[in-house]
Amino acid sequence: MGTPPTTGASFHEMWRDLAPIGRHAETGGYRRYAWTGADTDCRAWFQAQAEARGLTYELDRNGNQWAWLGDPTAGDAVVTGSHLDSVPDGGAFDGPLGVVSSFAALDQLRARGAAPTKPLAIVNFGDEEGARFGLACVGSRLTAGQLGPEQAHALRDADGVTLPRAMERAGYDPEAIGPDPERLARIGAFVELHIEQGRGLNDTSHPVGVASAIWPHGRWRFDFHGEANHAGTTRLDDRRDPMLTYANTVLAARKKARLAGALATFGKVGVEPNGVNAIAGLVRGWLDSRAPDEETLAAVVGEIERAAVERGRRDGVDVRVTRESFTPIVEFAHDLRDQLSGLLGGVPVLPTGAGHDAGILSASVPTAMLFVRNPTGVSHSPAETAGEDDCLAGVAALAQVLEGLACH
Ligand SMILES: [Zn+2]
Fold first, then answer.
1. Distance 42 CA to ligand 1 centre (A)
2. Tens digit of pLDDT for each residue in 36-71?
3. C-beta atoms surrounding 286 within 10 Å
4. How far is the CA of 277 from the centre of ligand 1 (A)?
5. How many whole angstroms from 4 Cα to the centroid of ligand 1?
6. Deepest in the core among 8, 166, 174, 187, taking most CB within 10 A?
7. Is 353 exposed, middle or buried (0-12, 13-18, 19+ CB in 10 A)?
8. Between the CA atoms of 104, 110, 112 and 113, what dihedral angle is there, to the nearest 10 degrees?
9. How many whole angstroms from 95 Cα to the centroid of ligand 1?
10. Residue 79 Cα, ligand 1 centroid: separation in angstroms?
11. Could you give the 3-state DSSP secondary structure of residue 355?
C-alpha cells in the first residue's frame, strides 16, 4: 500500500469537470435538482475527489456527503463545504465554489506540510436550494432536527413525486432519514465559503469577507379585496379597484424599506378575474421582506400594512395580511467570527440576506461563513460570477482558516 495522495485535481481542473454537469444548453443556467441525474453526477464527482485524495468517504443517513482527513469519530472536527445543487437556471458559483474551494484549500494545507491536530472534513449538503421540493436546506435541516422525517416524507415535487420516492430512485434509503445528533457532535466548527450574493465586498478592496449574520426574513400574503366589474361601463367614482391599492402598496413597500435600511419586494402577484376588460375583484401580492434585525423587520412590514389599509379605505378595498413564513435572525458565533477575521488580517465583516446550510447548523454548532466577492452582485442566475483571482484568494483564505482552526 502506497502513501495516500496529498493533493488532487487543481481548482481549475475541478471547476472544468463540474462545469458541464446539469447545464442547460439554451439558457446556460444550471438545473442540478436534488435526486436527479445531474445531482447524481455531482455526487459521483464529490466521491471521486474524496477518494483521489485518500480521504475517508461517508454518506450520512440524510444523503449528505462527507470526506474526512483524520478520524471521523475523534470529535472537535473542523468542517468546511457547501452544496452542489442549484436553483432553476442557477449560476455556477452558488454552492460549488464552496465545495471546490474546500478540496483546493485542503490540498494547500497538505502541500505545505501542515499537521492537523483535529479531524478535518469536507461536506456536500443535499438539496440546499429546495428547487425541487420547495423547502430549502433539506439535508442540513434533517440532520439538525429542524425538519422531521414525517414532514420530509410528505414533500412532493411539481410532478407529484414524493421525496422518499425520489431518494429511492436515486438509490438511497428514505427510511433512514432523520436527526443525526451524533454526527453533529463530531463537529467543533463549521465554516462555509460562499460566493457573495450582493455587492457588499465591491465597495471594499477585499476579495474575501466574513459573515456577521443572516438577516431575519419572512413572507407575507396581502389580499386586496375589491369588486370585479366592467372596465368599459363602470364610472371611476363607482369603482372599488384593488389594483390601485396594490400598486400604491408596492410603492410604499419600496419607500418604507429604503428609509429603514431594509428590503421589501413584491415579486409574485395573482389577479382575479385577470381579464383585460375587467376591473379586478381580488389582487393577491406576496411580500418578501428582510432587515438587519427582527424589530426593524416587524416595523417595516407593519408600516407597509398600514399604508395598504389606509389606501384601501380610499379605494373601497379591504386589505388582509397573512404571514406565511418567518425565519429569525442567525447570528454567527462571535468567537469564531472574530477568530476568522483575525486569521485573515481584519477583512470586512458583513451580513447577508440569503439563507444557507451554515445558518441551519448554527443552532447546533459554532458556525462561520466566508464570502467571495461577486462583481455584479447577481446570484441565482447564469450571470452570477466571480473573478479567477478572487476565487483563488478565497481558497487561500479558507486554507488559512482551516490551518488556524485545526493545526494548533
Ligand atoms: Zn448557496
1. 15
2. 999 999 999 999 999 999 999 999 999 999 999 999
3. 15
4. 43
5. 31
6. 166
7. middle
8. 170
9. 4
10. 16
11. coil
